[in-house]
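Appendix B. Chain record.
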Amino acid sequence: MKTGQYPVSFLFALLLALAAGIALALARPPTGSWPVFLLAALFAVSAILLWRGSRCCWLVFLLLFFVLGLCRLQGSMALPANDISQWAGAAMPEVRLRGEILEEPRWTKELQPDGSTVHKVRYLVRVQKVKAMGRDWQPASGRCYLYARSPQEDTSARIGDGIMAMGKVRLLHGYQNPGQIDTRLLLRTDGITALVMAGKAGVSTAPEDGHEFLRSIASLRAHYRSSMEEVMPKADAAAVFAMLFGGYDGIEPELVEDFQATGIVHILSVSGSHISLVAAVIAGLAALLHLPRALSALLVLGAIAFYSVLAGCVPPVIRAAIMGGLAFLALALGRERESRIILLLTGLGMLLCKPLLLFHISFELSYLATAGLIFLAPVICRWLCAHRVPRALAMGLAITTAAQLMTLPVLAWYFGQVSIVALLANLIVVPILELIIVLGLLAGLIAFVLPFLGRFVFAMDSLLLGLSAEVTHVLAQLPHSMIFVPAMTPAGCALYYLLLGSFLLNEKQKTWLCAQILPYRRALTALLLILLLSYGSWKIMAPREMAVHFIDVGQGDAALVVTPHGQALMFDTGGTRSGSFDVGAHVDVPYLLHYDIHELAAIFLTHAHEDHAQGCGGILRKMPVGHVYTASEGVDAYARSLGFGDADPLLRKFSAALAGDVFTIDGVRVEVLFAPPKPEHGGTGNEVSNVYRVSYGKASFLFTGDLVKEQEARLLASGQEISSSVLKAGHHGSATSSSEEFLKAVAPQYGVFCVGYENSFGHPKPEIVRRYQDAGIRTLRTDEDGAVVFHTDGRSMRVETYAAKS
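Structure tokens predicted for this chain:
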């Protein structure tokens, strides 16, 4: 390959090599400093080969960028010795910190059981000093989210103000399940390394000079919000504000669900589509005025810069502005080839500066969608035009189709579903939403000069939002509006993009490729047949396995059982006591969809406590469930836990499981070993936990919920055989459960603790963990291991942990 030949292919190969190095460094972090020495050696070799004009230079460059990816991720993951995260840990006391507020505080309300309202606030803080363990103030660094509670909302704190608080520092942690967005990496990408939970002393802020520019921008956004709320309902104002500047605060959940079902939820986050819209409007105005091309380009860049500043200059906005702006300009100037080079160079630059962007869903979707716009959309558009589709319609279809095709593997991994009505929504609804955005941006500026006219335009926006919401709801309710797509393996993703890339080949390239393959067509055909036959034989002859998944739902229990022929059962579903987060809808359902599970034969609940049962509500609303078996508390207790009304028709699926009941599903046996009656004088609910055992061949799994020692003794006294291969540790490893006699009777090989990271209860208790270890039981924990998955053919068993794999 000659130097400078095929620049697009070469840059694409460099981008892949860099991404591969970053991904490998995250999965298998290199030890020692050998990557740095290897990088220096490769740099020297590449310089020599480049000077000599060697044909092998490109290969050395690929290796160079691969090792560069390893080194860059190592460097980005390393933190200074005084980073705020260094004060995190269960054994560390509360610390006092001083810092600077970096964005407008975000306030939310939470209704308490007694009817009172608690105001919660989140500050983004640049930490400056820390005082801990009786020492004097010492310099500190890093960014953190600071959470606090207050009896009333305080809007006096602004960007740039000083802040002081005392609280517990926690490391970043999220739900560690496949298909789940990695919150830890997401925040680390934006420089946030810890969370701080303010104690009873609360938070104090002090006005600081400076930062007037950022404050004026924040005031301008507040002006937009207040002007909207004067003429439209708050929910409408929240939706329009989100379309302009991003965010989900205050939006009706039904509208968000409809946007998700129709594939246009991206409109609620500032992305490349917003940047392209702003650029297109300015470019169109420039064309109407017959302005010179250079001046038009300058105006477009100015409009993009202004909008980025107005949206807060947050990292996702800056990334979208860079990618969308450069791509739009290149295409508008008729430089399709240069736009490809610009996009690839932009990707290289971004990953070199912030390698963690590779794992950021916003970057993944924005970059792939932009790549679809540049690489794939023109090909699809030409094909449609060749088949007599009007160009205006062809371009709209091409852009939407290209974006969907390019982002499909990412959508399948994170969401397990793709909107089938996205084309209709993009053709019918998106133009209305784009008009809302353009009018909204214009109305806010007009309101400064002519408040009445600005409010009138905002009122028009509200009417248009109502129209678009109705149309979106109709489209979302169409049969099969969403199709479920199972997550692809890395090999599957590579094959998918290779097939997609084949459509980019021109006739000359296709002819050359066919000429290379033609002499080997018989050998390749035979190899393909052998592979297909081998795979089919393996699928037929491989023993049928049952899989049992212990899902990471934080401080709660949730387990999924998948039978040998794919039927699915759940044992508890997790949940939060405050009810502020729907674990069922946002953790359980994505997990099920990731494994291509679209319905459950049954859900077995051990008892009605929220951390075991609440997620059931979100699952029932999202997918078909055959039946729900409960403990003896009564349906009313479950209705309260799930947030259902007493007359909710879904409660008809509920009935109490009785001791001695046996269910056989696809060769898997579910036994109700213990179902104590409801206490006459009430109780916590732990003592009425049902005990279920799931068996397949010689392998068995025991689910005890929060069963306490007294009930364990009653179960032992009943004389039943309770030995099992795997024991779900009772009550999250609390000292109230897992008596020595009980562990001896169960005699499991494995014990699984379902616990939340640094939970306030101190679960699992150290003495209980030692008790399991002293009994020779291998222990696994969802807070450390993430999702834990057992596979068994009824004779042997193997276990996988998601955190270890990631």
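Further analysis of this model is presented in Appendix C.
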